[in-house]
Write a structure and sequence with these properties.
By secondary structure, the chain is an alpha+beta fold. It is 27% helix and 23% strand. β8 (224-231) and β9 form a beta hairpin.
């Protein structure tokens, strides 16, 4: 009988030892992964970058270019009514001042640039797009109202330009009244000193209608877009919205 007790005691000890062993097994022998592919999925592969989505030219730009090859871009300012094709005559810089995309007479004209001063790829240090300040609010007719508001520069900060092969995003840094001088005729922005001096004068403008973020003043090498129209209440002056390429 005594041997039986000893035998039972040994068996119980072995069972207890097995239970302890299996309870401690995950700590003693941790699994590397619940599934073979988990680690590979969570760990980025060095040198492998996300593929960019190919640029697709907006259909409205393609349609406009099919109508008139002088269309070379599309201007869009989110939150505003500024959503127009951009044209440039290769021979007459005044042609689209009073003509629509079809070349028909239209007092509102078109958003346009001048071939004598700007190319059509937006690679110039400064590109100026002109649009009439229409009483109806069409073209750049509401631009001054947008940008002279207290939060105008922030609310309408983004200015988008679409070309056949790329999208350009600009950020507005100044909206100011200005005189009637022809900016691209009077200033050679390929000269660093002139570039710096001009924009220094812009961020120094003090006017009721001016909104300026001096901390975002462009540096030489930046590409600047200027939207130009007549100043409301004074057609002898201009109203300019300036933005630099992001």
């Amino acid at each position: 009988m005594k041997k039986l007790y000893i035998y039972c005691g040994v068996v119980l000890c072995l069972i207890a030892a097995c239970l302890v062993f299996f309870a401690l097994q995950p700590k003693l022998f941790p699994l590397e992964s619940a599934s073979p592919g988990a680690a590979a999925a969570d760990t980025p592969i060095p040198g492998k970058e996300a593929e960019e989505t190919p640029y697709s030219c907006p259909e409205k730009l393609t349609a406009a270019r099919n109508t008139n090859p002088d269309v070379y871009a599309w201007l869009y300012v989110p939150g505003t009514n500024i959503d127009y094709p951009v044209l440039q005559s290769p021979t007459d810089d005044s042609y689209y001042l009073a003509r629509d995309i079809n070349g028909d007479y239209l007092p509102a004209g078109s958003v346009m640039s001048e071939h004598a001063y700007n190319g059509t790829d937006f690679s110039d240090p400064v590109t100026i797009l002109y649009g009439h300040c229409m009483m109806s609010g069409a073209m750049f007719g509401q631009m001054q109202s947008y940008y002279s508001s207290e939060n105008g520069l922030e609310d309408y900060k983004t200015i988008e330009v679409y070309t056949p092969d790329k999208r350009l995003e600009y950020e507005a840094f100044a909206a100011v009244p200005y005189d009637m001088r022809h900016i691209l005729y009077n200033y050679d922005f390929s000269n660093p000193r002139i570039f710096f001096s001009f924009f220094k004068s812009i961020v120094s403008i003090r006017s009721f209608n001016a909104n300026i973020n001096p901390d975002e003043k462009p540096r030489y090498g930046d590409h600047v877009l200027i939207l130009s129209t007549c100043l409301k209440g004074d057609s002898t002056r201009r109203y300019l919205v300036m933005a630099k390429l992001k």
